[in-house]
Amino acid sequence: MPQLRVETFASQIFWLVVTFSLLYVVISRIVLPQVRTTLRARETRIGVDREQADELRKEAEAAHHRGSDALAAARADSERQLREAHDKAAVAFRTETQRLQEALENERVEAEARIEASRAVALRDAEAAAVELVRSLTGSLTSVKIEDAALSRVVAQAAREKTP
Amino acid sequence: MATDSSASGDAAHGPLEQFEIVALEPIQIGGLDLSFTNSALWMLIAVATIAMVFAGGMRRRAIIPGRWQAAVELTYRFVANMLQDNVGPQGARYFPFIFSLFLFILFGNLLGMVPYSFTYTSHIAVTFAMAAVVFVGVTVIGLARHGVRFLSLFVPSGVPMALIPLMVPIEIISYFVRPVSLSLRLFANMMAGHTMLKVFGGFVGLLLSAGLGFLAPVSIILIVILTGFELLVAAIQAYVFAVLSCLYLSDALDLHH
Fold first, then answer.
1. In this structure, which of A99, B13, B43, B221 has its CB flanked by the most CB atoms within 10 Å?
2. Under 8 Å between Cβ of B145 and B254
3. What is the Cα–Cα distance from B37 to A55, expressed in whole angstroms?
4. How far is the C-alpha of B219 from the C-alpha of B240, rounded, in Å?
5. Does A25 map to a domain?
6. How many CB atoms lie within 10 A of CB A130?
7. How many Cα atoms within 13 Å fall on the side-chain side of residue B101?
8. Nearest residue in chain B measured CA to CA from A43
9. Across the interface, which of B19, B97, B187 has its CB nearest the CB of A24?
């Protein structure tokens, strides 16, 4: 078994020490520092990126809040304006209706007064016509001369009796 | 195992011949044979491969890594987590050593899977030297940190006084067996796997020469399966060696356990 050949041990151990020392130097002086700096740089970069992402996210949230606030304000404003316009229209409607009713009432009262006046005039004319008719009838049928005042009184009385 | 060749039927290459250490450049210093061997060559190749893979992967040091850089970072994080989980933050000082150890064993094991290569981790001298460094290092760290109180490691907590005379020798023995078990586990796994592959490879030649060539595919399929299995073992054994080193380190840093 070649493993038990003692005369090879010195050479094996000597070259083990030489090559392992070489490897140790290469690993500890060249490889490990390079890996460490790379990993550290990556961690720093990730940290910075994460911070930036956090900041941007906060900004976006703030912007979103601002937007929704503005939207809510605009909605409230539009509702208020709508309500105001509605109220104004209702008030205008009421005053206009009132004004028109008053005007109509006035016109009605005036019209009634006019009708009343016309009726009075018509009645007076009819009485006058009746007096004239009675006078001409009595004059042509008889020679009796009736006084105007008495005639008017009689005709007025008759008119009042006949009118229901 | 005493019979190196002739066991496989392939007379030229016995299953243990792959473990033969051959001097490529004989060097003698003070009566010691420090020849540059095939073992030393593959150690050098492993170190060069690791350096190329890891320094190459980090050449861009990109914030967003490519596949190569991601693989390097993944290995880094794998070992860093292993140390963090088993030792804690105070193990960070020993990270370069554990990382180098893990890679040295891992690449030694994996490169050993390349045909005609040499697996330096299949030699007890190498694995024991590594385990001894871990053992001595851990003991020195424990003594430097806790002084005489480090010996309380051998007195398990919560054991009745009557059992102390029994438990302390057991603990002491188990402590000193650590480097042996650590080195034997790796060496035995690597050697057994490679021997098995060679034996099944030898079967192919044996079957062909015996006129039973139609059975050769069975052996070849087994070799394919075993190769996959051996790749797994290569990675697992490197991991086990590193994890146990971490656990021993943790014992020395933290006495109360």
1. B43
2. no
3. 63
4. 30
5. yes
6. 17
7. 27
8. B63
9. B97
Q: Which residues contact A101 (CB under 8 A, 6 or more apart)?
A: none
Q: What is the pLDDT of residue B123?
A: 95
Kindly state whether A93 is in contact with chain B, defined as any CB-CB distance less than 8 angstroms. Answer: no
Query: In this predicted structure, what is the pLDDT of residue B206?
Result: 87
SS (H, E, C) A116-162: HHHHHHHHHHHHHHHHHHHHHHHHHHCCCCCCHHHHHHHHHHHHHHH
**Min distance B216 CA to chain A CA atoms (Å):** 28
Helix or strand or coil: residue B156? coil
B11-25, B41-55, B165-179: range with lowest mean pLDDT = B11-25
- Residue A8 located in a structural domain: no
Would you tell me which residues 22-81 of chain A have a C-beta closer than 8 angstroms to some C-beta of chain B?
Answer: 22-24, 26-28, 30-32, 34-35, 37-39, 41-42, 45
Main-chain phi, psi angles of A113, to 5 degrees: -60, -40
Encode pLDDT of B213-231 as tens digits. Answer: 888 888 889 999 999 999 9
Contacts of A9 in chain B (CB under 8 A): 125
Residue B35: Cβ within 10 Å count: 22
Q: Give the residue from chain A lying closest to B38, CA to CA.
A: A12
Tally of domains within chain A: 1
pLDDT of residue B180: 96
> Does ipTM surpass 0.90 in this model?
no
pLDDT at B1 exceeding the cut of 50? no
Do strands B23-25 and B28-29 pair parallel, antiparallel, or not at all (unpaired)? unpaired
B103·A19 Cβ contact <8 A: no
Q: Answer whether A23's CB lies under 8 Å from B47's CB.
A: yes
Provide the residue type at A15 as one letter: W
* Structural domain that includes position A141: 16-162
Decide if A129 is inside a domain.
Answer: yes
> Which residue did the predictor score with more confidence, A161 or A133?
A133
Q: Which tokens in the block code for residue A93?
A: 């409607």
